[in-house]
Amino acid sequence: MKILAGGCRVYSPEDGQISTVGNWAARTVICRDTGAKRITQTASEYTPGVSPAIVNPNAEEVLYVTAGAGVAHINGFAYPVRPGCAVFIPPGAIYHIENPSTEKLHIISCCCPEDPECHIVETAVTSSGEPPRLMVHEEDRDPIRAGKDRVFRYLVHTDLGCEQVTQFAGWIPPGKAPFHFHTYEEGIFILEGRGIVHVDEEDCEFGPGSSVYFPTGVRHCVENPGDSTIKLLGAFYPSGSPGAAYEND
Hints:
This protein has no helices and 25 strands.
């Protein structure tokens, strides 16, 4: 992990504390212990089988599938997932992940605010009727321009019932944006491509699997010096628009 001015942090794919329960291995990257205030980011890996069921009593959680396929079970309802699927876990919902494949299932999650009361539950949950809309695929979202040449798509947003967190996918073409800041706390996971984070007079390179934490109000710039597009997964708290950026002198 490299700490930049204003508390911005850039994490390598090897950073984070790993915990394993059953077929679920979780690497917690962004959290209070690593410098964040309220937002978290965890990279989870599920081997074949059914994971333990967990609940966040007080926090919203958003998931994004980066590789593999399986089923997210939420309060007894089943949601088939594949790469590009985003899932909303409401506060108090009991959920677990099923991986019926021989391949590993990879998920990036963000929980806001960090919930110290998160715990494993033993009780099985069953439900009937029409499942609530808690999942969307990025291909089902319209592209939205942010600035002159950058594009994002909402993933988990208010239409899925999420009130505190905004999750999005973003694409950064070659080039360098102006320095700017946001009025929210943000965590980013790099899905594809390589670039540079600039904060004041400091900078740090990143690549696939890296994570970046931006505190509220810190002026920064993400540069793409290469010839291919960077794809990133972002989440921020409180909820809003990824295109809302503010520039000053």
